[in-house]
Structure formats: C-alpha cells, structure tokens
Amino acid sequence: MPEKGGRAVCFVCREAVFLAGDGDSWIGFAQCQLRSDYVEGTQTCPVGYLEGIYVELEYRRRGIAARLLDACEAWAAEQGCTEFASDAEISNRVSRSFHKSMGFTEAAEIVHFAKKLPGFQSGSGDKDVIS
C-alpha cells in the first residue's frame, strides 16, 4: 500500500477511518466501527463492522482494499472484538464477490422498508408539526 495508507487517520469514539494514498492523491478508504446492536450472523458484542470501503477504479485488483480491510480488522481486534461483519446491497455483485474473497460468509439477505409519517413537513431539514 502506498505510504499514506496503513494507519488510522481518524478515531472518533468507536469508529476508525483508514486511507490509502498514491503520491499526493487519496485513492481509497475504509471506515469501520464497533457495533453493540444486533449484527446479522454474529454471536458476540461488540462486533467490528465495515461501514464502507472504496478504491479508485484504476487502483483496484492490487490488494489495496484487502489491506484496508486488514487494518479495520486489526483495529477491531485491538478493541476486543472477536467477530467482524459487513453488508452489501443485494444487487452489488462486485462488493459481494469482494466480501466472499476476504473470507466473509453471507449471513442473511434483508430488504429494508421506509415510509413517511403523517403530520410532518419534509424538505427543510427541520420537522414542523402541522396542525
């Protein structure tokens, strides 16, 4: 991994961000955190969780994402975690393939639902009660 990568650049409470760089450019990142809520497929608490990982297209398939993930997993282990988890959109074949190649197993396929609640305006960011 280029010299800018390989260490956390930001620790906020129970979260870490790792960056990969090439010269003066950032080419990838991984964000992870500790989760104490229920995490599909795990049995312990807290669980290290990969919230996001990205490597610029022209730098892919060089092991950069794997090293970023390794950094996240090492950080989680240092925090006392014995399990590490992640998620991917059902339709994101690239992400699902990456996860499987990194030793993850699929724990579940979940569909999320959302709806607007009556009585609230949306759009401004502030929620005003409509009488």
UniProtKB/TrEMBL annotation:
Pfam families per UniProt: Acetyltransf_1 (PF00583)
An annotated Gene Ontology molecular function: acyltransferase activity, transferring groups other than amino-acyl groups
CDD domains from the UniProt entry: NAT_SF
Xref: NCBIfam families: AAC_6p_group_E
Annotated organism of origin: Candidatus Gallacutalibacter pullicola
Protein name (database record): GNAT family N-acetyltransferase
Residues spanning the signal sequence: none
Domain N-acetyltransferase: 1-118
